[in-house]
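Figure caption, in words: inputs first, then the predicted bound structure.
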Amino acid sequence: MAEETALTGWRLENSYKSLPNAFYTEMQPNSAAAPEVIVFNSPLAAALGLDEQMLQGDLAAEILAGARFPEGAEPVAEAYAGHQFGHFTMLGDGRAILLGERIDPSGKRYDIHLKGSGRTRYSRGGDGRAALGPMLREYIISEAMHGLKIPTTRSLAVTATGDHVARETALPGAVLARVAASHLRVGTFEYAARFCEKEELKALADYAIKRHDPELEADSEKYLSFLKKMIERQASLIAKWQLAGFIHGVMNTDNMAISGETIDYGPCAFMDSYDPETVFSSIDVQGRYAYGNQPAIGGWNLARFAETLLPLLHDSQEEAVEIAQAVITEYPKLYRQNWLDGMREKLGLFKEEKEDEKLIEDLLRLMYQNKADYTNTFSALAKGIHEEALSKDPEYAKWQERWRERLKKQEESDEQVTALLKKSNPAIIPRNHRVEEALEAAGKGDYEVMNRLLAVLRDPYAYSAEQEGYAKLPDTPDEPYRTYCGT
Ligand code: AMP
Ligand code: MG
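Bound structure (adenosine monophosphate present):
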């Protein structure tokens, strides 16, 4: 029974295929020697209205590994381009396919995407495969981001293929089943603007609007409004990253989703001690995508996005540029407002006062000078304690006094302030050493460490006793942490 529904129960749609042919290549299943589901996201399956039973047998594992397609699926690899570290390149799904789209019980459409499922037309020199470690890493971090209430693609499962992939050494291969509001990227628009006809670009924009901003379909200036929406979404998203201390690591334009979800977890990581220059990615040698640069890079990427829409904004290129520029200049202000609003909440402040910006900047400066842990500085405020490194600085004691004075100015009770602090400051983040520890155990076939980590990350605002241990810093906090992508 379960075997049968594994094929029929997905009920996938293929709206992406309504786009012109230039946007995709149809796919056949790839092989997988011995598919085995390693980790499966039951709450997400339930949210998608998928029957968990149906996703448990061998057939389901074959499907999740991309080795067999369910009924009604017409999988494709998506075409896209992008600016990688500032340089334009043709890209595309080189190691992923869109299996199809699932409509959840509330009527929302989600892509079911398989990453690491084999070569496609866009693979260039790559093998189209992924190693188990990086796919589990994406699973952990994306689900942690969801727990942190940051818009993100999600992870339904990681399935080992039973094959080995050749990296520096031979590693176990795996496929990540990724769930996203769509996989349309800034890079999809760059591809259309560079390689397609205007009609095809228009078809893409209309499709994106229908999918993400349907209320704009009747708008007389819908492409301009679409650009504004995209700017709003990214200003909000990147502010959330900054507020959580998240470093994406490769903010290339192909990794910026039109939906406003965080996408493509490669060399990402969370900052420990506060330093705007923090970079983890081994390939980002110049620090282009350092923590403190992320908001500005967001603006740069949005400018590339706006350029692709010029032909739809006005017949005259000159006027189109003027129209686009006027809205792009709003981005830094929007970002700053989102960030300030979020920071105020992190300090338990309900309303805006002029002095707040200085209060915030001074705290960040003290954190920087003392190499204070970013997450723990804020969670300490919620717990009514002091972050360790800051506790020794008399300047911080003065800052605390100012903060308490500021809190007294508002009508809200201490309980309300504490509730806001706990809601706005996570007790835990996926700390780098904890993620590594989970991956190391998983590499040896022990998935318990990872499952426990996933469980505590489900609600990082719980302030539970179990989370205390996960908030601790590594024994050697200053060891440089390096992350890798494309593996
Ligand atoms: P990413 O660094 O994951 O954003 O990927 C950038 C581009 O490289 C995308 O077009 C990917 O599909 C492609 N890519 C990454 N890894 C592989 C691989 N192992 N085989 C083929 N293409 C890959
Ligand atoms: Mg990418």
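The chain has a mean pLDDT of 96.
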